[in-house]
Amino acid sequence: MLAQLPGQVAVVGATGQVLAVNAGWRRFGTASSAPGPGEGYNYLAVCDAAQGEEAPYAQAAAAGIRSVLAGATREFNLDYPCHSAQERRWFRLQAVPIGWAGAGAALVLHTDITGLRQARDEVLRLNASLERRVQRRTRQLETANRELEAFSYSVSHDLKAPLAAIDGFTHVLAERLQGRVDEREAGYLQRVRAGVAAMFVLIDAMLSLHQLARSAPLRRTSVDITALAHAVVDELRAAEPDRICSVDIEPGMVMTCDAALMAVALRNLIGNAWKFSARKEVMRLQVGIEWGEPPGFTTLRVADQGAGFDTRLAAKLFAPFQRLHHAADFPGTGIGLATVQRIVQRHGGTVRAEAEPDVGATFWISLPEVFLDTVDSSRED
User: Which CATH number goes with the domain that contains 274?
Assistant: First the structure.
């Protein structure tokens, strides 16, 4: 059995004498600076007498093998170098207790782990390189975020101020020229003011989307989605009490999410259903939950029977300021669904949509049921 063991193997007796070796041990001893190739010499004494750079490893090996021989340790392991001018090699020493010729002994194995060490060193090198790249990327993101903050400040102050001046002076000009300009000229002034008002709305929408990405960390709790949906519908009904509505909100809906952000998402989804159903005699809305679909996720479904859209263009809906309907038909900024997607992504979830023109639209929000403690990636936007 000893002869069949791979590597370099020796049986070391209680006093340190080498009692038996395999062929690998003899070849190793002949081809390297390791102790003598055969039985009879004292392995522990050779280790104790080691000099130079090998001395600490040899003495540690002797101490470990003595611990195994004394029964204090069931197994001893030590990685040590065995370098030469031609190559750098590493070996692993393992010692375990065995019985030999009716007495206690230690089975000592030496295994060449040079390849493993080289692979480990390569992994460490790659990890260090990756860490440097991550640090560099982090610095770039921090710089980009500072630039975005500066842009946000510029938009909210430097752009709004001249727009307010345009709107104010156009209003004054329209009043002073009242009765002295024809209907077409008055229409021009009105269109200038309408354009300024639209710019204000777009700027506020841009700021809202940016502030959402920079908001506080998520506070995930068990959220009553049914109550949130009813609250949004009640707000819309209060604003348009004459609308005829058929609302089906599933009772007992609960999701693990940030309550404030989910309220914003529902307000946008249900608000869109309300808006795009304006030309229908009856506004029909369904809000429900699909548990475990896909596995590990809870999916919220919001469906309406409004204007709908071409499903092939659904991906465009979630890009800021992308619209599939003319503003004259259905007013808005095109930022609502981009906000929904940003909120869902911050939760680690997905959002998708299907629809058919003049038939209606359905949106699905899928959030993971279990959240890992990871960095909120959307905060790098």
Answer: 3.30.565.10
Residues 202, 98 within the same domain: no
Question: Which residues constitute the domain of residue 15?
Answer: 8-112
Residue 104 belongs to a domain with what CATH number? 3.30.450.20
Count up the domains in the chain and report the number. Answer: 3
Statement to judge: residues 278 and 193 lie in one domain: no
pTM for the whole structure:
0.50
Q: Is residue 321 part of a domain?
A: yes
User: Is residue 134 domain-resident?
Assistant: no
pLDDT tens per residue, the chain (381 residues)? 777 777 889 999 999 999 998 888 887 654 444 444 456 689 999 899 888 888 899 999 999 999 999 999 899 999 988 877 677 888 899 999 999 888 999 999 998 888 888 898 899 999 999 999 999 988 888 887 777 767 766 666 677 788 888 889 988 988 888 888 888 888 888 888 888 887 787 777 667 666 665 556 778 889 999 999 999 999 888 888 888 889 999 999 999 898 888 888 998 899 888 888 888 888 899 999 887 667 888 899 999 988 888 777 777 777 665 655 555 555 555 677 888 888 888 888 998 888 888 888 999 999 987 654 433 444 433
- Full 3-state SS string of the chain: CCCCCCCEEEEEECCCEEEEECHHHHHHHHHCCCCCCCCCCEHHHHHHCCCHHHHHHHHHHHHHHHHHHCCCCCCEEEEEECCCCCCCCEEEEEEEEEEECCEEEEEEEEEECHHHHHHHHHHHHHHHHHHHHHHHHHHHHHHHHHHHHHHHHHHHHHHHHHHHHHHHHHHHHHHHCCCCCCHHHHHHHHHHHHHHHHHHHHHHHHHHHHHHHCCCCCCEEEEEHHHHHHHHHHHHHHHCCCCCEEEEECCCCEEEEEHHHHHHHHHHHHHHHHHCCCCCCCEEEEEEEEECCCCCEEEEEEEECCCCCCHHHHHHHCCCCCCCCCCCCCCCCCCHHHHHHHHHHHCCCEEEEEEECCCEEEEEEEEECCCCCCCCHHHHC
